[in-house]
Amino acid sequence: MNQLLEKAQNRCANHSNPAVRGAWRDVRDRVKRLRDSTSVGTYGPASRNGRDDPSTIRLRKKRALNAIRRLRKKAPSVSRQMKDLEEEIREVPARKGI
Fold this sequence. Notes:
Layout: H1 2-12, H2 18-38, H3 45-49, H4 54-74, H5 79-90
C-alpha cells in the first residue's frame, strides 16, 4: 500500500482544487488507520492481541472505501490510482488466520 499511497500523494496533495486536497487527506488518514489496526506490534489496542478485532477492521475498511469513492467523484483524474488502492484495501483480511 505504501507505493500506491505515494503515487496518489503525488497526484492529489498539490491539486488545484481544495476540496480534492481535503478529500485526499481523509483517504490518506483512513488508510493509515486501517493499516495500524491490522499490523502487529503497534501501540494502542492492536498491540494487546496483535491486531484490532474483526468488526473494527471491517468498519475501517468500509470508511476507507467510502472516502475513496468521494475522492473519485471530486477528482476523476486520479481514478486509476484510487482503483488500485481500493483493490488493495479489499484484500486486507478482517480475521487473524486469513
